[in-house]
Protein backbone atom coordinates (compact mmCIF):
# COMPACT_ATOMS: atom_id res chain seq x y z
CA UNK A 1 0.00 0.00 0.00
CA UNK A 2 2.76 2.44 0.92
CA UNK A 3 4.72 1.45 -2.17
CA UNK A 4 1.76 2.26 -4.48
CA UNK A 5 1.32 5.67 -2.84
CA UNK A 6 5.06 6.37 -3.19
CA UNK A 7 5.09 5.40 -6.90
CA UNK A 8 2.06 7.61 -7.60
CA UNK A 9 3.63 10.53 -5.74
CA UNK A 10 6.95 10.22 -7.57
CA UNK A 11 5.10 9.90 -10.89
CA UNK A 12 3.04 13.02 -10.13
CA UNK A 13 6.15 15.00 -9.16
CA UNK A 14 7.89 13.83 -12.34
CA UNK A 15 5.00 14.98 -14.55
CA UNK A 16 4.80 18.28 -12.68
CA UNK A 17 8.50 18.94 -13.22
CA UNK A 18 8.24 18.00 -16.92
CA UNK A 19 5.27 20.27 -17.56
CA UNK A 20 6.89 23.03 -15.51
CA UNK A 21 9.98 22.83 -17.71
CA UNK A 22 7.88 22.90 -20.87
CA UNK A 23 5.94 25.93 -19.61
CA UNK A 24 9.15 27.70 -18.61
CA UNK A 25 10.71 27.13 -22.05
CA UNK A 26 7.51 28.27 -23.79
CA UNK A 27 7.35 31.52 -21.80
CA UNK A 28 11.10 32.14 -22.05
CA UNK A 29 11.65 31.42 -25.74
CA UNK A 30 8.25 31.66 -27.48
CA UNK A 31 6.21 34.35 -25.74
CA UNK A 32 4.21 35.48 -22.75
CA UNK A 33 1.03 37.28 -21.78
CA UNK A 34 1.63 40.73 -20.29
CA UNK A 35 -0.77 42.99 -18.41
CA UNK A 36 0.22 46.60 -19.11
CA UNK A 37 -0.25 49.43 -16.65
CA UNK A 38 0.28 53.15 -16.86
CA UNK A 39 -0.57 55.88 -19.37
CA UNK A 40 2.68 56.02 -21.37
CA UNK A 41 1.43 54.00 -24.37
CA UNK A 42 -2.04 55.56 -24.66
CA UNK A 43 -4.01 55.49 -26.92
CA UNK A 44 -2.41 52.34 -28.41
CA UNK A 45 -2.28 50.40 -25.13
CA UNK A 46 -4.29 51.60 -22.14
CA UNK A 47 -4.13 50.72 -18.46
CA UNK A 48 -4.87 47.01 -17.73
CA UNK A 49 -4.75 45.90 -21.39
CA UNK A 50 -3.42 42.38 -21.86
CA UNK A 51 -1.04 41.81 -24.77
CA UNK A 52 0.95 38.89 -26.14
CA UNK A 53 4.70 39.49 -26.35
CA UNK A 54 6.57 37.09 -28.62
CA UNK A 55 10.24 36.37 -27.95
CA UNK A 56 11.35 34.90 -31.28
CA UNK A 57 11.96 38.30 -32.94
CA UNK A 58 14.30 39.34 -30.15
CA UNK A 59 16.39 36.19 -30.45
CA UNK A 60 16.61 36.57 -34.24
CA UNK A 61 17.45 40.31 -34.01
CA UNK A 62 14.28 41.21 -35.92
CA UNK A 63 13.19 44.20 -33.83
CA UNK A 64 12.38 47.12 -36.14
CA UNK A 65 11.46 50.79 -35.83
CA UNK A 66 7.81 51.13 -34.89
CA UNK A 67 7.65 47.83 -32.97
CA UNK A 68 6.25 47.91 -29.45
CA UNK A 69 8.53 46.00 -27.09
CA UNK A 70 8.58 44.80 -23.51
CA UNK A 71 11.97 45.55 -21.92
CA UNK A 72 13.57 45.47 -18.50
CA UNK A 73 13.57 48.91 -16.91
CA UNK A 74 17.05 50.48 -16.84
CA UNK A 75 16.21 51.82 -13.35
CA UNK A 76 14.63 48.74 -11.76
CA UNK A 77 15.48 45.26 -13.13
CA UNK A 78 12.42 43.81 -11.37
CA UNK A 79 10.13 45.99 -13.47
CA UNK A 80 9.26 45.73 -17.18
CA UNK A 81 8.46 48.66 -19.45
CA UNK A 82 6.33 48.74 -22.59
CA UNK A 83 7.53 51.25 -25.21
CA UNK A 84 7.79 51.76 -28.96
CA UNK A 85 11.13 51.46 -30.78
CA UNK A 86 11.88 54.86 -32.28
CA UNK A 87 15.51 54.35 -33.25
CA UNK A 88 17.97 51.54 -33.81
CA UNK A 89 21.75 51.74 -33.60
CA UNK A 90 23.13 54.51 -35.80
CA UNK A 91 19.81 56.39 -36.12
CA UNK A 92 19.57 60.11 -35.38
CA UNK A 93 16.71 60.75 -32.93
CA UNK A 94 15.15 63.80 -31.32
CA UNK A 95 15.93 63.86 -27.59
CA UNK A 96 13.83 66.86 -26.60
CA UNK A 97 10.30 66.79 -25.24
CA UNK A 98 7.21 67.69 -27.28
CA UNK A 99 6.92 71.13 -25.66
CA UNK A 100 10.61 72.10 -25.92
CA UNK A 101 11.25 75.12 -28.11
CA UNK A 102 14.78 74.09 -29.12
CA UNK A 103 15.06 70.56 -30.46
CA UNK A 104 18.11 68.47 -29.60
CA UNK A 105 19.29 65.32 -31.35
CA UNK A 106 21.59 62.39 -30.71
CA UNK A 107 22.69 59.19 -32.41
CA UNK A 108 21.73 55.79 -30.99
CA UNK A 109 24.96 53.95 -30.09
CA UNK A 110 25.83 50.47 -31.32
CA UNK A 111 23.93 47.68 -29.54
CA UNK A 112 21.24 50.04 -28.23
CA UNK A 113 17.70 51.13 -29.11
CA UNK A 114 15.78 54.33 -28.47
CA UNK A 115 12.38 53.73 -26.82
CA UNK A 116 9.51 56.18 -26.35
CA UNK A 117 5.93 55.91 -25.20
CA UNK A 118 3.12 56.90 -27.58
CA UNK A 119 1.84 59.38 -24.98
CA UNK A 120 4.86 61.71 -25.19
CA UNK A 121 3.59 64.11 -22.53
CA UNK A 122 3.16 61.35 -19.94
CA UNK A 123 5.98 58.88 -20.57
CA UNK A 124 9.29 58.17 -18.89
CA UNK A 125 11.39 56.76 -21.71
CA UNK A 126 14.71 57.14 -23.52
CA UNK A 127 14.30 60.90 -23.46
CA UNK A 128 14.81 60.56 -19.68
CA UNK A 129 17.22 57.63 -19.35
CA UNK A 130 18.87 57.51 -22.77
CA UNK A 131 19.19 54.60 -25.17
CA UNK A 132 18.86 51.14 -23.67
CA UNK A 133 20.94 48.08 -24.51
CA UNK A 134 19.33 45.65 -26.95
CA UNK A 135 19.86 42.91 -24.35
CA UNK A 136 17.20 44.49 -22.08
CA UNK A 137 14.47 43.80 -24.65
CA UNK A 138 12.34 40.86 -23.51
CA UNK A 139 9.98 40.58 -26.48
CA UNK A 140 7.93 42.27 -29.19
CA UNK A 141 4.25 42.96 -28.61
CA UNK A 142 2.33 41.52 -31.54
CA UNK A 143 -1.26 41.16 -30.35
CA UNK A 144 -3.70 42.88 -28.01
CA UNK A 145 -5.87 40.29 -26.25
CA UNK A 146 -7.89 42.27 -23.70
CA UNK A 147 -10.31 44.06 -23.67
CA UNK A 148 -12.22 41.97 -26.23
CA UNK A 149 -13.48 44.95 -28.27
CA UNK A 150 -9.87 45.92 -29.12
CA UNK A 151 -8.57 42.39 -29.85
CA UNK A 152 -6.11 42.24 -32.74
CA UNK A 153 -2.85 43.50 -34.15
CA UNK A 154 -1.68 46.80 -32.68
CA UNK A 155 -2.00 50.09 -34.56
CA UNK A 156 0.81 52.19 -35.93
CA UNK A 157 2.30 54.95 -33.80
CA UNK A 158 0.12 58.07 -33.44
CA UNK A 159 3.35 60.16 -33.41
CA UNK A 160 4.85 60.06 -36.88
CA UNK A 161 7.93 61.94 -37.96
CA UNK A 162 10.01 61.63 -34.79
CA UNK A 163 12.96 60.00 -36.52
CA UNK A 164 15.24 62.26 -38.53
Automatic annotation (TrEMBL):
EC number of this enzyme: 3.4.21.-
Keyword Nuclease: no
Residues of the Peptidase S26 domain: 15-96, 103-146
PANTHER family in UniProt: MITOCHONDRIAL INNER MEMBRANE PROTEASE SUBUNIT 1, PROTEASE FAMILY S26 MITOCHONDRIAL INNER MEMBRANE PROTEASE-RELATED
One GO biological process term: signal peptide processing
Location of the protein in the cell: Mitochondrion inner membrane
Organism: Culter alburnus
GO molecular function: serine-type endopeptidase activity
Family statement: Belongs to the peptidase S26 family. IMP1 subfamily.
Subunit structure, as described in the record: Heterodimer of 2 subunits, IMMPL1 and IMMPL2.
EC class name: hydrolase
Lineage of producing organism: Eukaryota, Metazoa, Chordata, Craniata, Vertebrata
CDD domains associated with the record: S26_SPase_I
Keyword entries, A-Z: Hydrolase, Membrane, Mitochondrion, Mitochondrion inner membrane, Protease
Active site as annotated: 40, 83
Gene Ontology terms: cellular component: mitochondrial inner membrane peptidase complex
Primary localisation category: mitochondrion
Record's protein name: Mitochondrial inner membrane protease subunit
Amino acid sequence: MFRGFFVKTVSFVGYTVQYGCIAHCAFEYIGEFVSCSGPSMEPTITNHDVVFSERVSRHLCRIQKGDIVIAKSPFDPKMNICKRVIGLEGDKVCTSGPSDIFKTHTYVPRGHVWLEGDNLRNSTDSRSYGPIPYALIRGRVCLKLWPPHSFGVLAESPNDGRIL
